[in-house]
Design brief:
single chain, mainly alpha, globular
Length: about 220
């Protein structure tokens, strides 16, 4: 087993998962807060659409991303013509694919965490004349952060294990876009059992650590201490 290759693949997977989670920190938490506090027509439909990546085949999501960000896609063509940016077969494309697949695992816990915050505490802060932004950062977020962090950790683990959408969008270029899950698939296809076993153990170890951490941060666990 080439340990150097294994560490490069692990490093790439961690980088993709990290940036995918950072992207979902902004988008998932923001949308979770919007749906938890907002009251507008079509809210349930929007929630359903945003949850679709949890149940749709990753290859379907990858196809949608290719249609959107490919050279002939309206967004991909615009990025290429205006900024010279091409996301297909790049690690940045892998980040977008992983972020899309993991999005519901961040968005749903974030919404639940915000809905669990006692609205009377926020109202009391308004009575004291505190601005809405200060209420969010000083009242709402401190009360919801454990649920949000647990969702982010689950999203990180899911982003690390993403295969279908990532393979379609980023391909399998060793050292550039070949994440752990893709490298395992390639090793099995090539009959390299030793390589596959090592990569499987690496992936399993990282995911177990992340899931144990997420479990310890779950709000329900804290209530039983």
């Amino acid at each position: 087993m080439d340990l150097h290759f294994a560490w490069i693949t692990l490093g790439l997977s961690l980088k993709v998962a990290f940036w995918a989670t950072a992207l979902n920190l902004v988008l998932g938490v923001g949308v979770g807060f919007l749906l938890a506090r907002g009251r507008f027509p079509g809210r349930d439909l929007l929630d359903t659409v945003l949850t679709l990546p949890m149940v749709m085949p990753p290859t379907v999501l990858g196809y949608y991303l290719l249609v959107l960000f490919g050279r002939q896609g309206w967004l991909g063509e615009w990025l290429q013509s205006q900024f010279g940016i091409n996301l297909i077969f790049t690690w940045q494309g892998a980040v977008i694919a992983a972020a899309l697949v993991a999005f519901p695992l961040v968005f749903k816990p974030a919404r639940a965490a915000f809905e669990a915050v006692d609205g009377q505490l926020e109202q009391a802060a308004r009575v004291l004349g505190i601005s809405e932004s200060a209420i969010f950062f000083r009242v709402t977020l401190p009360l919801a952060w454990r649920g949000i962090l647990a969702g982010l950790l689950l999203g990180f683990a899911r982003a690390m294990g993403e295969f279908g959408a990532t393979l379609m969008v980023a391909g399998s270029i060793p050292g550039q876009t070949q994440t752990l899950s893709i490298a395992i698939y390639e090793a099995v296809q090539a009959g390299q059992d030793d390589n596959a076993n090592m990569l499987v153990w690496l992936t399993s170890l990282v995911c177990i650590v992340v899931l144990l951490t997420a479990t310890r941060l779950a709000p329900g666990r804290i209530a039983h201490r």
